[in-house]
Amino acid sequence: MKAQCRLPLDVEIIIQEARDDMMAREATLREARDDFERRLIRVTLAKVNWNQTRAAAFLGLHRNTLYGKARSLGILS
User: Fold this and answer.
1) Cα dist. 42→2, 6, 7, 68, 76 in Å?
2) CA–CA separation, 53 and 33 (whole Å)
3) Residue 3 CB neighbour total at 10 angstroms
4) What is the reported pLDDT for 34?
5) Is the dihedral of CA 59, 64, 32, 47 positive or negative?
6) In terms of DSSP H, where are the helices of 1-77?
7) N or C: which terminal CB in the chain sees fewer CB atoms within 10 Å?
8) Residue 22 in contact with residue 32, Cβ under 8 Å?
9) Is residue 21 situated within a structural domain?
10) Would residue 7 count as lying in a domain?
11) Enclosing domain of residue 30
């Protein structure tokens, strides 16, 4: 069984902020999903001092998958 990494994130706040922005901009589903993922990845990376391996473990992703998502969302270069 794989050990889960636990971080104190308030996902409810992230969801509410993303929802409010989506409604204000009349965003498409894709835009809303990308915005939520961008926020969640940024907050997670900040909580682990930008350690991609720890962030990926918390999010349940492989490190390479996190890196690819972060690049495509403009978080990492």
Assistant:
1) 24, 16, 13, 14, 10
2) 23
3) 6
4) 92
5) positive
6) 11-25, 29-47, 52-59, 63-72
7) N
8) yes
9) yes
10) no
11) 12-72
Please count the structural domains in the chain.
Answer: 1
4 assigned to some structural domain: no
Which residue in this structure is represented by tokens 């990376």? 45
- What pLDDT does 4 receive? 55
Q: Helix crossing, 52-59 with 29-47: angle to 10°?
A: 130
Q: Which positions of the chain have pLDDT values less than 50?
A: 1
Per-residue model confidence (pLDDT) at position 1:
40
- CA–CA separation, 66 and 77 (whole Å): 13
Structure tokens at 21: 């922005």
Q: Do residues 52 and 38 make contact, with C-beta atoms less than 8 angstroms apart?
A: no
